[in-house]
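$ run holo --ligand "beta-D-glucopyranose" --emit tokens
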Amino acid sequence: MKRFLRLALLVCLTASLPAAAQDAKMKAFVDALMKKMTLTEKIGQLNLPGAGDITTGQAGNSDIAKKIADGQVGGLFNIKSVAKIKEVQRLAVEKSRLKIPLIFGMDVIHGYETVFPIPLGLSCSWDMDLVEKSARIAATEASADGINWTFSPMVDIARDARWGRIAEGNGEDPYLGSQIARAMVKGYQGDDLKKNNTIMACVKHYAMYGAAEAGRDYNTTDMSHQRMYNDYLPPYKAAADAGAGSFMASFNEVDGVPATANKWLMTDVLRKQWGFKGFVVTDYTGINEMVAHGIGDLKEVTARALNAGIDMDMVGEGMLTTLQQSLKEGKVTMAQIDKSCRLILEAKYKLGLFEDPYRYCDENRAKTDVFTAGNRAVARSVAAQSFVLLKNQGNVLPLKKTGTIALVGPLADTKENMPGTWSVAADFSKPISVLQGLKDAVGDKAKIVYAKGSNLDYDAAFEERAGMFGKAFGRDNRPAAEIIQEAVNIANQSDVIVAALGESAEMSGESSSRSNIEIPQAQKDLLAALLKTGKPVVLVLFAGRPMAIKAENENVPAILNVWFGGSEAGSAIADVLFGDVNPSGKLTTTFPQNVGQVPMYYAHKNTGRPLGTWFEKFRSNYLDVSNDPVYPFGYGLSYTSFSYSDVKLSSTNLKGQQTLKASVTVTNTGNRDGKEVVQLYIRDVVGSVTRPVKELKGFQKIDLKAGESKTVTFDITPNDLKFYNYDLKYDWEAGEFQIMIGANSRDVKTASVNWSK
Ligand code: BGC
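-- output --
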């Protein structure tokens, strides 16, 4: 036995040797470098200034150039092109005393030049291989263009449709959000950060940013630790466990202290509990904003940030300008500055920048690897899989490629809006609009006639705010009735109407919260006029959030939610409208009936007065609206139909670490092949603390040919029953569990088990 143990130990040691040896090598390198560094140079590494306007050929004369030469800059972000990045890197490695290379970041959020669907859309594919692939392609393109660090994945759980940044995340669910966080980190970082086509991930916005009160961006968040640990923190933890190289602090406060100065969050949870070994950067001027938060002047808040565990200061230069003084005054220690400087140097080391500062600056790759036909083909297929068919009464869809199709709406002929929010690297002349996509798809087989039909909104000032960053619509100043009439005229001469309506790209994203989450009135009036023609209407809904479309659900026969599909959006929309691709996306956020119901999410608590059917006095409900959503979490239709058998369990009485097998047989009952996302939910019926009415615990996306049946089995272990209890201990409790399997969070088949310890 002893011999066996000794052998096992030896194997263990040998197996871990390469990683340990690499760490030791890195440590020795950084130790030696840091010995040569002055205090100013060390603090310089913590500084991530805004790049300003760096023009190729003039970088050397910019303000930033002097700072780089003086060793006062650790990295730069959102500079686009190898030529510019190379020029700036040259300043660092030729002009600065210690020749420490810069790290180059960018908001590569959902693709680089080849843009994939906005993250909320991508999450609706429920396909982790696709998610990883999209991040892999984004990394390949960005790294070919000089970038080695992305401010992604954004993994903030969001349950409030008013919050504009709900578009940038993966929806409301911590289980699905954690899977996606992992896939994104893997896609960006690959298996070796040193490779020239992998980039470092930066997990954001840590933490709880998605719970801003009233859905207003940057607003206060306040919640119990139990909710944090069970619902909001899991995706950040999953990303840390997956080896993400860096984290970004969020703007909001947590427990009354801004995240940027929150030691509990940055050190106790992130580093001590989760074992995170990378560096933490602030969000844009996150340190300076703590003055407005009201916790001190710049010197004070900067010291608090460093003490909390922040390593890099984005844009605000509080560290650059105040840390030396704070050190003199004993507000911070040299050990803390050293620790942060070391983590940033280590990140550069891991990226291979000390071996070759131009590793990511290969002009040839920039020419061959970006916006390639292959990448665009993937983006097209990913986009089609992100769309969610919400309604298809009388099988209006798919459309035939014959006759005349009227394409109407302010979103129909705008390339610029197709990529959606946060598409920093996109060339807006390149995306495929719906009009172009439909025309390309039908060729000369059918006629596509187009009219805008309405402005984005009646309010010109609102429309201007919703069309920022080169995404303006070009306002039609004629009377609304005249613009609508033009659309009605072409509709009357057509066989079917496709109405491309909803939000513009900039109606979601940062600082784009809305208190009204419906389709703007100008477009609603257009839709009403189109419905009046009596022609079949297909609503192609553009959205960066779950929208309140109760009336549309009642009145429009077919609705396809397309989010913002990226560079190839128009082609992908045509693929689905004409049935070349059968839609399979499922919602990852609940669609409420009206804004008054939000925050709304499927995994809610039962309360002491749960509602049976609406309305009952002294029950948890509203006087004016039921508790139902319009579309529940997990919902989405297909051009075929699926039936589910009852749930079959391998046992109804389990003990300890046994595995429960829960299965259903799913049958494609229609006459088209299709994909279905089979979802597993569990309810812990009695707990030491109250538990949600159901929680997603597994899913499988399967292909089913017309008429085909497949049995889908989920292996459930006590691990799947664990939660953070009152003492924040992660464990499971014996008792009854309901095992639910179905096509969405509402339509499930249920069976019960008893699980003892
Ligand atoms: C956003 C971040 C982004 C950063 C850098 C901030 O305003 O909150 O998500 O990464 O800017 O562009």
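-- notes --
The longest strand covers residues 674-684.
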